[in-house]
Amino acid sequence: MFELRLHPMLVHFPIALFFTSVLFDAAGAWFKRDSFREGALWLLILGLLGGAAATIAGTWAEEAAEKAGIAESMIETHETLAFVTLGIFGVLLLGRLVLRNQFTRKTLVPYFLIAAIGLGTLSATGHYGGDLVYEQGAGVAVAHKVGVNVVEHTRP
Question: pLDDT tens for residues 93-104?
């Protein structure tokens, strides 16, 4: 049961960090400030670390979700998108390191195109993850099967 709870807690970090990294890069390009570019680099690194942790926790949760009756094909699609997303942002980090975190007009356009694709796959990953929880009941269905009643509480 712990495995099912850990993954949803961790996924928000890479989502926020990757999006913020790209926003910092855009601000750095617009305002021509090195501090934004440096911040974007660290946000990207932290996003990859958070993404790795979320992926490991998701792998642990996969078996429990399958046992709860969640369609394996949906889980596999979510998992594949997560790996692709991490790969794309890993390529962005590698590119930054090769360029020594310095961009030119020639390198900035491809970087932002790849980043946009990465944000698209990140969004798709989150969408499929949300479907697993809210449409298929991953994590929620397990609670119902063990006799936990989920009721809405109101304050007196």
Answer: 999 999 999 999
For residues 98 and 95, give the distance between their C-alpha atoms in angstroms, rounded to a whole number: 5
- Structural domain boundaries enclosing 58: 2-144
The mean pLDDT of 44-73, rounded to a whole number, is 92
Residue 114 domain flag: yes
Rg over CA atoms, the chain: 18
Domain count across the chain: 1
Predicted model pTM: 0.85
Q: What is the distance between the terminal CA atoms of the chain, rounded to a whole angstrom?
A: 32
Q: Is residue 151 part of a domain?
A: no
Q: Report how many helices (DSSP H) and strands (DSSP E) the chain contains, helices first.
A: 6, 0
Assess if residue 111 is contained within a domain. Answer: yes
Cα–Cα distances in angstroms (integers) from residue 152 to residues 67, 127, 130, 155, in the given order: 27, 25, 21, 10
In a domain, 153, yes or no: no
Q: Among residues 50, 10, 7, which one has the least CA distance to residue 142?
A: 7
Confidence of residue 142 (pLDDT cuts 50, 70, 90): very low
